[in-house]
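Most newcomers find our protein records easier to grasp once they have seen one. Nothing more is needed to start thinking about how sequence determines fold. Here is such a record, shown just as it appears in the course material:
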Amino acid sequence: MLKRRPRSWVASTSAAIVLLVAGCGESKVSQCNRLAEVVNQTQGFMQEFEAEIASFSSNAAQVESLDDIKGAADQYITAVDKVVGNLDTLVTDLEGTELADEELITYRDNYIQVVQGFSTALQGASSAMAIVGEVESEADLPAKIEESQQETMNAVSSIQELSVQESTIIGEVNAYCGADATSVGGGEAEE
């Protein structure tokens, strides 16, 4: 079963899948499990990413100088760039997942589009933070922060829209694969 992830950080990019399949034919079960196995790889890197973002938030709250601000920006950019690389790998792995079931192929392809969207939005967030990281003087900081905030808001808006699409796909795959409907979301969904 695909589980909806908590949205503790809005840029979390993909769903954790635990597949509990009941009542499906063997071929469909194995294909559902194969798809779940690929998507499950997101659990580790998303938890790591969320920890790095929490660390960034803590560091950003304690900045005292322009160098501190640049250091926090660099930390954020590094964390985002790492998860973007992981998302790009996930896309490649999903594209390489062999499925014969046309419905599962459609779900996989739709999920790939969502993951690519997350990647693009996160790249936008990284670029927005780079604006702050490249500030040369404290006098320039307010204008650059305003510019960065606008780009960040655009990225966050995209991520929120993609999260809704992701949630819909998760529900549809769960239903199609015959996952235990009482476990969908596992009480973890926050949207």
